[in-house]
Amino acid sequence: MSSKVVDTETAAASIKKVRPHPNQNEGLIFEKSAPGKRGVEIPPLDVPAVDPLAALGSEFTRDSIEGFPEVSEIEVIRHFTRLSTWNYAIDLGMYPLGSCTMKYNPRVNEFVALLDGLASEHPQQPAEVSQGCLRILWDLQNCLLAITGMGAATLQPAAGAQGELAGLLMIRAYLASKGNARKKVLIPDSAHGTNPASVVIAGYEVQNIRSNARGQIDTDHLREFVTEDVAALMLTNPSTLGVFEERIAEIAEILHEKGALLYMDGANMNALAGVTRPGDFGVDVMHLNLHKTFSTPHGGGGPGSGPVMVKKILEPFLPVPVVVKKENGQFALDQNRPQSIGRVRAYCGNFGVLLRALAYTLAYGPGIRQATEDAVVNANYIRKNLEDYFDLPYNLPSMHEVVFSDARQKKHGVNTMDIAKRLIDYGFHPYTTAFPLIVPGAMMIEPTESESKEECDLFIDAMRSIAAEAEEDPNLVKTAPHSTRVGRLDEVAAARKPILRWKP
Amino acid sequence: MRYLPKSPSERKEMLAAIGVQTVDELFKSIPEKFRLRSPLPLPGPLSEAEIVQYFQARAGENGRGFTSFLGAGVYSHLRSVVTDALVQRGEFLTSYTPYQAEFAQGTLTAIFEFQTLMAQLTGQEVANASMYDGSTALTEAALMAERLTGRNRVLVARSVHPEYRQVLATYARNLGLEIEELQYTQSGQIDSGALTPEKLANAAAAIVQTPNFFGVLEEIPALATTAHAGGALLVASVTEPVSLGIVRPPVEADIVAMEGQAFGVSPSYGGPYVGVIATREKFVRQMPGRLAGQTTDAAGRRGFVLTLATREQHIRREKATSNICTNEALYALVATIHLCLMGKEGLREVASQNLAKARFAQAELEKIPGVRRVFSGPTFNEFTLEFPRSVKMINSALLRDKIIGPFALGTQYPELTKRALVCVTETMPRAEIERFAAALKKILETPV
Question: N or C: which end of chain A has fewer CB within 10 A?
């Protein structure tokens, strides 16, 4: 109606209200609660009612739950929708977290995971009425074995870290069956923290080994460490620097000569799928993170799934149960495995995640190689366009990710975390900061294949612009982000006096 | 390929910018002999429509259209469509672990609410941001008790979920953690007489489940008193948390290890679910798993961050409290939304309906000659029955009537052959309970 041009920022600032609207300042659900409200109605009871107090007695019954929320359906919808808008997500843009493989999560995977007849199935129901679920597990197992070139698989571990543990326990059981479970597991200093933590639960000692000046395993150094006491080397390949271990076959040989095994952390399998197979280059045990390479959603921290693939010699030690195909073509769960390490989780693992990973694999088929190639092209394209602006501590061929350091920006007092936080203002999620530990001030960037050239170019522009800001206006970068609902949060105070729940 | 956003010419352009002729040059660090020369033998590629077809075909090979009386750790409950609509929002579904707090306040706030709800339900002071499931939560609770007491033995009730005990055994085997099992009595409850001072003297914890695997509620206050007198902790596992709508929470337990699947998470053939550990505030630094905590920004605005990370593997490596990294955040969100919808009254009503339906079913089934209740202790939505014939035979006959029968206890408990655990929740119509009773009666009347 009015033809006047309004400066929106001034207009927003001029709004005078008694309180900001909740969609600008959403509280906790408990703060919206009022007695008598409810968000769901239950169909009426069609059998005689039973009074809990009379049936169970006062020693087994409780009064109403103090502080429990009482809200209506629309309030629940608005509350969680508002909260969701405070998150960044792959659906919004690039998520260049190195080592996390934040790729597109196909929507059809979500659709099929919720199908009646799949989501509804009970894990203890008889095999006669579980053939569909068992076939899904069987098909996925075969796909993962084809991709990794390994001999046998378990889909039970609930996440990568649990896969590590299951793999290490199989190594221990195998070595014990040969007469000596051994004492130590070797771990390079560039490894994920889960590796050493898993080693301890498997009952082994951690022996850390230093990477060489090229960020790779020093094979001479390794030879000294591999004794009859060493059960295995846990190796991430490509390493957390995004670099392939060029001497992988020699590494495997050094271990095998002394009767030790090679464990590969498959966190970075997105660089290899369809291009090379770990089973071919000497790996004995490996896990995959289906919530990385196989596109299942991270969901704000989980669920994951960590299938473990082993060479045939380790098959007797797989966790129970094992999915088998009988002579009549029917699928079954084999519980009778006398040499098994036992169970690492109840039931058959995170079936809903496994199912999504199969949907992803079927979508690509042999074309999965193209995804790998695009991921590697994106990482190298970003590297090429940023290497004049940021320090590249290890000048080796990058695969699916590239690790810069903040060495050049540090001269202006700007560190990797500052740059990461500033990226938020440019519309990107930060890259991985301060990891791997062998790179001080690490900036670990993994774009994945899901990013278009345009999105990569936008990211490159943002990073170059921040590099300029670090020189011209370092304080702007150091106080970022400036565009989020809350500024940098006081993590020290949070840990000193932890407030871990709401109280009335 | 529909998931890949590059045109052939863009790929060429990018390769040129990198300074290589072919994409193969980018893989030259992989020794030539290990590079695949032929395409992998994988099924596909499939279009979206074909993927849906494949999974619909699989769904048709399962138990669709069957009525199930299985519980035993996994429960079918009413779910609101609101829950799925909200968790399917890409902002929740496709976001990462909230390490960058300013950009993840949605997830962090919801986790804080989850921790609060779990603490309120269990009667504990604090709860973590989730574990993989109930079985690993129980196992981690045992390891936590070991750290807290410095004792390396745990007493575990045989009435704890058999698969949970198997997981604990797998973890304990190489950690020098000894496991001793405790028997149950005719009530179905733990034999508290077996909790002698001698046994407790060097035990880190007594571990029980309530309602236990036979569906019977344990007397937590008395068990806690006994355990504490012996210097041990009490760990309580809860696999059916809907019970907490009416059942007294295990307040006196020192650690509660819970499976939250019953709060709006589909059975989904075994996972993903959502484990929880809840405990006393003073034990929080020995607790595994992520925690969200409240804090402020420089302007004094309330916000939430992941906190006490010095317990975790990415900081402490081999000295961490656990190797857990990825958890079950999305399903913690499902449980949070589900419980907010249910609310104080809804949860109580659902729990009461479970009790009523189970009692009705029990009475109907006990009318059948030869069918009788096994344990005398108080139950919630599951109960153990004895049958005059093998449960395996009964269950395969029931399948013909499109009924998935109760959980046969004989496989896990040799002394309980011909006994089965029946589960009835609020989702089971009265007519189906009656149909089950009639089918069972007919089967038992048929000469062998």
Answer: N
